[in-house]
Design a protein that fits this description.
The chain is α/β, with parallel strands linked by helices. It is built from 35 helices and 27 strands. A 9-stranded mixed beta sheet has the order 6-5-7-4-8-9-3-10-11, with helices on both faces. A 7-stranded mixed beta sheet has the order 14-15-13-16-17-12-20, sandwiched between helices. The protein starts with 22 loop residues before the first strand and ends with a strand.
Length: 978
């Protein structure tokens, strides 16, 4: 191990003697190692390149705004902190871990006890914490910083492994100084080496002359978070031996040459850099979106663009407009404008579920295709949820891409080749290999994913700073804002408060947002307390009854309201009661569909879906009844959604609409993000906002002009039949399944606001969109009086509802991130008492959603001979490759195509398996079916998965339940003893 090799100017030129023996990295499988000075210089160099070429300008400006020389100081600070982040490795507690390297250091006078002699105590001073203590002391001794002033900088070093130290941990170091310096003759040498490294970094990274000026700076906590995140990213890149090879393998080169080769090998796309689109709104929409011939920009879209252009400062915009009004296109147009104004480098589109995320992803790609070309020419794109790798649009972007290893013997002027990639004019969209990790995916420029990815930013968890960096450089779009309950809203409001501090533009979309919730969102982002907000116009936000409605507010600002007109389209929906019962429904549908037509029946539980479909098939025939619900395997559910769009989509896109009578029996999957159009709606009673979402699937598009003359004569008037309720008594009694899903109070409030329309008959229809806001605000107003005669049931239901909401809020607050602290207050203990790692797994989602724990299984077929295979009905993929009946050998890892196909057959078990005792039994039985040969590194698709084998008839037993799965009905569950 040569220690005195020639090195170029930089850190190495400022160091001599024992300091050169201090190590930072070691190859466990060989003799490779990296000196600490080399890793410090690599990390600093990467941080500089990240600042120059990867960080969005909004992030650079945000950091620079609090420093005396702005972004010049910001770059210096980032580079310096990345350079010193591993100073804690120059301690006995760290250096003792590799005996061979420790022995070399001892030979240079840096004495230390062995790893075994120091024992478990050394883990109490990990190198991040040690580095924080050393850097803080150096700032205090060398530059006169007080403890708090030093702490706001040093905490970046302490938190570079994902968790800033707590006060108790910092105090504990004071009694363990032997872990920082070996007592005795070598203590002075240890101190000298540490100081020598810190002094050299101050000179090499050009901060020595700036530290005096920074002494008076109070770094806001969000800036401390971003500095920490950039250092983490720089450290991760600089720690990749493919990019930064260990000694002695590395060929002689300067630090600049080493960086240049690594940066080419990484090939990281830079941020989006849009310009504010000028010109008429119509031209902008025509160039960005695939609009039908003759389509015009709708009033809400035009008003949103105008408001985005005129806002005093980019901030939060809430867009409330009816279903089918083009809110998604409005959001993307607003995002482009706000990104250009704010300097944001990308967009995150947050959706309620993986299904809606998958539906949004190709729309995002199409929009990106149509954006004007930028100087960057490449954008990084991610689908951020746990099953993204099974999405074919996403895997097309991934295919063939990898991080190129640095060519040690290649010409320095020749960039390494990165194979593959899918080009899309005018910019290339890539799912970059380095950004695919579960903690890094959100760092891509453009991301579509579940709302969980946003809520995780409010959850105290490891590497939370990375999530904040990922959001701080984007425009955030939150779809279906009405869909999130109290538990999720606790996290969402806290995240919005941090986004406001970061000055991140946010666009919130909803068709049915209660006014009180609108105010809460705006107040959270603006950073105002409820009491203070009243004086600044925030009460007007809650009082606004207009619809459509745009609400905008800048961080710390006052709200602005805009009231665009409606597009002129609309529908009047006659609503009437229907006695509950499948036979009653069958008789009514036989009359309504006598002349043909397409009916949608929405049930609140899967059990009711299947019971209803069974009766209707007896009456109408199997070919005339389609089932859609959440208990299908993933690949079948995606095919179901595609088939619904093909058969019931808008004119021109729904190319296979049935000519005769047809009935779709669906669960709540029909409410969100499906542009389907039916002639008649039958629905179980649900909360009124969901009722309106369901009505939005009724006469959604003109068929035969305003008179709907292309629809059957009996169905040219939009009608909604409300069932799932015993209407015979004075107070409506919703069926038990609906109460279990939504709670009695929400259902009673919905019934109360619908009663005037139910009693009014054809003379009192629900007018869409005019009545949407009226009904939603009436149902969610607080307080609201019970209808006459409903008082007892109403008050009992209200008490249960309020207790449940209070319980949700209390439980959500346990792991919720704290509010932003005072500027200058170090981030010590920022994620203390957190949950550890948070990711989009079953356990991760459970942390930000208040749902009963559920299991996900991979469904395979067990043949009569006992062998396993993929299920037999799967159609070929879109490249024509077979997927049905692929063998899944249990004595070895299946071939990649079969394993991936099996993984695409994931199924979330229904609520029957969620009670604690049944859940434990279910896990135990599934673990008995574990295939050991699949639990290896070479089996990424199936390792760790719970496998549910079903017979060739689709049947099986699990935890006392009999299961039956079919392509047409999905999963049916009944007790085995029934």
């Amino acid at each position: 191990m040569a220690l005195e090799e020639t090195a170029p100017a930089g850190l190495r030129a400022r160091l001599a003697g024992p300091v050169l023996s201090v190590w930072a990295k070691h190859d466990r499988d060989g003799d490779g190692w990296l000196p600490l000075w080399r890793h410090m210089e690599d990390s600093a160099a990467v941080a500089g390149r990240l600042w120059d070429e990867w960080l969005p300008s909004s992030v650079r400006r945000f950091i620079g705004d609090v420093l005396p020389e702005g972004e010049r100081d910001g770059r210096r600070l980032v580079v310096w902190l990345a350079g010193v982040h591993d100073i804690g490795k120059a301690t006995p507690a760290f250096a003792c871990q590799v005996e061979g390297l420790a022995q070399v250091m001892r030979g240079r006078g840096l004495e230390m006890r062995s790893r075994e002699a120091l024992g478990a105590e050394r883990r109490l001073v990990p190198h991040g914490l040690a580095g924080q203590v050393l850097l803080g002391a150096w700032l205090e001794e060398r530059f006169g910083f007080v403890v708090k002033q030093a702490g706001q900088f040093a905490v970046v070093v302490g938190g570079h492994h994902g968790v800033p130290p707590e006060h108790g941990q910092i105090t504990a170091v004071e009694g363990r100084s032997h872990l920082l310096w070996t007592p005795g003759p070598s203590e002075a040498l240890w101190r000298r080496v540490q100081t020598e490294l810190l002094d050299a970094c101050a000179d090499a990274f050009e901060v020595r002359g700036r530290l005096a000026a920074w002494r008076g700076v109070k770094l806001p906590q969000p800036v401390q978070v971003l500095l920490t995140a950039v250092v983490i990213v720089a450290d991760w890149i600089a720690s990749n031996p493919e990019l930064f090879p260990y000694f002695p393998e590395d060929v002689p080169r300067t630090g600049a040459e080493r960086l240049e080769a690594a940066w080419r090998g990484l090939d990281l796309p830079g941020p989006w850099q849009p310009s504010v689109p000028d010109g008429p709104v119509g031209e902008m929409f025509a160039s960005r979106f695939d609009l039908p011939a003759g389509a015009r920009v709708r009033p809400v879209q035009g008003a949103a663009v105008k408001l985005a252009r005129s806002m005093e400062e980019p901030g939060l915009m809430v867009i409330e407009a009816p279903m089918g009004e083009g809110k998604t296109e409005a959001a993307l147009a607003v995002a482009e404008i706000l990104a250009a104004r704010a300097g944001a480098g990308g967009v995150f589109f947050a959706l309620p579920t993986m299904v809606t995320g998958n539906a949004m992803f190709p729309r995002l790609l199409t929009w990106l295709d149509r954006l004007p070309a930028s100087s960057e020419g490449r954008y990084s794109v991610q689908l951020a949820h746990s099953k993204a790798a099974l999405n074919e649009d996403f895997t097309d972007l991934m295919r063939g891409r990898r991080i190129a290893a640095v060519d040690l013997d290649g010409e320095m002027g020749q960039a390494p080749t990165v194979a593959g990639g899918v080009g899309r004019a005018p910019a290339e969209l890539v799912a970059h290999a380095w950004l695919r990790g579960r903690k890094k995916a959100m760092l891509s420029s453009f991301v579509a994913g579940t709302i969980d990815q946003l809520l995780f930013a409010g959850l105290k968890s490891r590497h939370l700073a990375l999530r904040h960096l990922a959001l701080a450089g984007k425009v955030i779009v939150i779809d279906e804002a009405h869909a999130y309950d109290t538990y999720m809203s606790v996290y969402l409001d806290r995240v919005l408060s941090w986004l406001g501090e970061y000055r991140v533009p946010v666009v919130v979309l909803s068709a049915t947002l209660p006014a009180g919730r609108r105010r809460e969102l705006v107040v959270a982002y603006a950073g105002r307390t409820v009491a203070a907000g009243a004086a600044d116009g925030f009460d007007a936000v809650a009082d606004a009854e207009d619809y459509p409605l745009l609400t905008a507010v800048a961080p710390g600002g006052k709200p602005v309201l805009r009231r665009p007109g409606v597009c002129g389209r609309g529908a009047s929906v006659s609503v009437e009661r229907l006695e509950d019962g499948p036979q009653v429904l069958a008789e009514r549908l036989a009359k309504e569909l006598a002349g043909g037509g397409c009916a949608l029946v929405v049930r609140n539980t899967v059990r009711r879906v299947l019971e209803t479909a069974s009766v209707l098939r007896e009456r109408f025939g199997s070919e005339q009844v389609t089932v859609a619900h959440s208990c299908f395997i993933d690949v079948d559910r995606a095919a179901n959604d595609a088939a619904l769009l093909t058969r019931f989509g808008p004119p021109g896109k729904g190319t296979d609409r049935p000519e005769g009578a047809h009935i779709v029996v669906a669960s709540q999957v029909a409410e969100q993000s499906l542009d389907v159009d039916f002639d008649l709606l039958v629905t179980d009673l649900a909360p009124v906002d969901l009722m309106l979402q369901r009505m939005g699937r009724l006469h959604r598009h003109p068929r035969g002009g305003t008179g709907q003359t292309d629809r059957p004569a009996l169905l040219r008037t939009a009608r909604c039949l409300v069932t799932g309720v015993d209407w015979s008594g004075e107070v409506p009694q919703p069926v038990r399944g609906s109460v279990a899903v939504y709670g009695a109070y929400a259902l009673l409030r919905s019934a109360a606001v619908l009663v005037p329309h139910l009693d009014g008959g054809p003379e009192r229809p629900v007018r869409l969109p005019a009545d949407i806001s009226v009904l939603v605000q009436a149902a969610y107003a607080d307080p609201v009086a019970a209808p006459a005669g409903w008082e007892t049931e109403w008050e009992e239901a209200r008490a249960r509802h309020e207790a449940h909401r209070a319980d949700q809020a209390e439980r959500a607050a346990v792991f919720r991130l704290g509010a932003v602290g005072r500027p200058g207050r170090p981030l010590f203990g920022w994620v203390a008492a957190g949950v550890g790692d948070a990711d989009d797994t079953r356990q991760g989602r459970a942390q930000v959603r208040d749902s009963r724990e559920s299991l996900e299984v991979v469904v395979v077929q067990r043949r009569q001979d006992g062998t396993l295979a993929t299920v037999p009905w799967l159609a070929p993929d879109r490249k024509g490759r077979r997927r049905a009946g692929l063998p899944l050998p249990t004595d070895q890892v299946p071939v990649a195509a079969a394993a991936r196909t099996a993984a695409s057959c994931g199924l979330r078990l229904p609520i029957q398996f969620s009670s604690p005792e049944v859940l434990d039994r279910t896990i135990a039985e599934l673990e008995e079916l574990c295939v050991e040969a699949w639990q290896v590194k070479d089996s990424p698709w199936l390792a760790g998965q719970l496998i549910l084998p079903l017979s060739e008839d689709g049947e099986g037993q699990l935890a006392g339940f009999a299961l039956r799965y079919s392509r047409h009905d999905g999963l049916e569950v009944r007790r085995a003893d029934q």
